[in-house]
Amino acid sequence: MCRVGFRRSEAFNYPFSLNPNHSHPALDPERLPRHVAVIMDGNGRWAKERGKDRVHGHYEGVLSVREIVNTCGEIGIPYLTLYAFSAENWNRPQAEVNALMELLVNTLRKEVEDLRHKGVRLRVIGDVESLPQVCQKELDEAMEITKDNSRVTLILALSYSGRQEITKAAQRLAQAAVSGNINPENITEADFEACLYTTGFPEPELMIRTSGEHRISNFLLYQLAYAELYFTPTHWPDFRRAHFLEALTDYQKRERRFGKTSEQIQSI
Asked: In the predicted model, what is the mean pLDDT of residues 88-117?
């Protein structure tokens, strides 16, 4: 119902070598999250601390993206969502916005063939049509090139707003009800989820935010309902494999109860 006329573009990419023998002794491979979402915060602060322009921090952040995608492929995490550009980020200085769009385009052009070869499927969630045409074109091409890959699905949140996503989903359901295609009394969570940008993806089980902030900033408001939240003071350009594994180790120490008691969980 909500898929009709709903455009979901795709892409972004970084090269990495996939080695299924790479592992971490402290991690239980049976208890890894299927989907990790990351708020990549602190690029500007990282650059400022080094006396450099904010844009330099964004370019350095690409190295962290590469390493985290690499790690997901190596240890077996099939879904990774990165909060790359929020709807609110359009309010940043125009020079910085332009640099971010240029970074997106250049990275896509440079890396997409390598990602295709490595088995990474690229997707995008958000108001893609608000992006410059050149960005949309590169994203669409990258989606097409990587559509048959299945090792890691890399989902970029671009021009994304959780509130906007929920509002649009409600509008689609309302229109379907007005058109007589659905009875409002029969609307289920599954119907609503089918109208979200993230339809077809599992919900994140772990959300990581870097750079010391302790909020989710309009990111996946519906989907993070039962996610474990992990906050680190490390700025995104410094966040690498060891930090990611540390977050996963912390995740595996937590008890996910979903409303049940500890005794109920332990008896399963």
From this structure: 93
